[in-house]
UniProtKB/TrEMBL annotation:
Protein name: EAL domain-containing protein
Domain of life, source organism: Bacteria
First and last residues shown, out of full length: 589 to 865 of 865
Start and end residues of each EAL domain: 23-277
Length: 277
């Protein structure tokens, strides 16, 4: 009946409001958290597949909410991106990771700290100016950092993305394509873009159950040989066990990252376990 329908509509509206309110609360909390620096960068080590030697770390953000606890990035990066708060937050991430790179990469040849960038952050009008400012104020060598981008950046505007990446490369900063294999046009972008590294998405590694003759193994081997043909470094992420590492070693994958090596660690933990040892 009509009244029943209206009731359903009101219920729907009420739940929409609840969701919108929830978002607004999170947005406000995020805004305050940026001012009060409630964030912390964790660092996950990366090692050469061939000999296990340390070759860098990926910076991964954590939000420690007073009274609530640790919020994983997937719970707030999307909202930060939609509201534009990723711009101030991204500056903090970049600055903090550059200062850390100075401590760890200075004097350690080939060691780089990888930093994740959201499309909105990169496409901001002043991104290159912000980057230059952070480079000069922190005194980090451009070769000590690497910027991880995703295909979604490229899908916004290929020409603009290509131009931006060229400017980044010209400064001597490495660029990595993250989550490779999950998008739609990975191959064509790969040919176009000035990138030095591709990271095989962890879903491909997770799917590999240990049979080297399986399709899942073939996917991984194909991506690795693609990198070899194009002359770019291949990093496998989400490596959780010995047989996944063994496959990567057998096909000549360069670098791996994952719980099998180590989980993301606080800067202090990373320092103790990987730098001072
Ligand atoms: P991502 O860039 O693909 O980062 C890798 C994610 O895999 C991290 O999740 C990491 O903790 C997790 N991981 C590492 N090893 C393993 C493993 O062996 N098994 C499994 N199952 N997972 C593993 P995390 O830290 O929760 O980050 C999730 C996503 O949030 C990141 O995915 C990235 O897209 C985004 N993110 C994290 N930090 C930042 C940041 O500083 N800026 C931006 N823009 N995005 C960030
Ligand atoms: Ca990443
Ligand atoms: Ca990834
Ligand atoms: Ca991701």
């Amino acid at each position: 009946s009509k009244s029943k329908g209206r009731g359903t509509f009101h219920y729907f509206e009420a739940s929409m409001n609840a969701a919108a309110q929830q978002r607004l609360l999170l947005e406000n909390a995020l805004r305050m958290a940026i001012e009060q620096e409630e964030f912390q960068l964790y660092y996950q080590p990366k090692a050469f597949c061939a000999d296990g030697g340390l070759c860098g770390a990926e910076a991964l953000i954590r939000w420690r909410r007073p009274g609530i606890g640790m919020m994983p990035p997937d719970a707030f990066i999307g909202i930060a991106e939609e509201t534009g708060l990723i711009v101030p937050l991204g500056k903090w991430i970049l600055k903090t990771a550059c200062l850390q790179a100075k401590v760890w990469a200075g004097g350690r040849a080939g060691f780089r700290v990888a930093i994740n960038l959201s499309p909105r952050q990169l496409l901001a009008e002043d991104f290159i100016a912000v980057l230059d400012d952070i480079l000069s104020r922190t005194g980090v060598e451009p070769g000590w950092i690497e910027l991880e981008i995703t295909e979604s950046l490229v899908m916004h505007d290929v020409d603009k993305a290509t131009d931006l990446l060229r400017q980044i490369r010209r400064r001597g900063i490495h660029v990595a394509m993250d989550d490779f294999g999950t998008g739609y046009s990975s191959l064509s972008y790969l040919k176009l873009l000035p990138i030095q590294t591709l990271k095989i998405d962890r879903s491909f590694i997770k799917a590999y159950a240990g049979d080297p003759a399986s399709n899942e193994a073939a996917f991984i081997k194909t991506i690795v040989s693609l990198g070899q043909i194009l002359g770019i470094t291949v990093v496998a992420e989400g490596v959780e066990n010995q047989f996944q590492l063994a496959l990567l070693q057998s096909c000549g994958c360069h670098v791996y990252q994952g719980y099998y090596l180590a989980p993301p660690l606080s800067a202090d933990e990373f320092q103790c376990a990987w730098i001072d040892r």
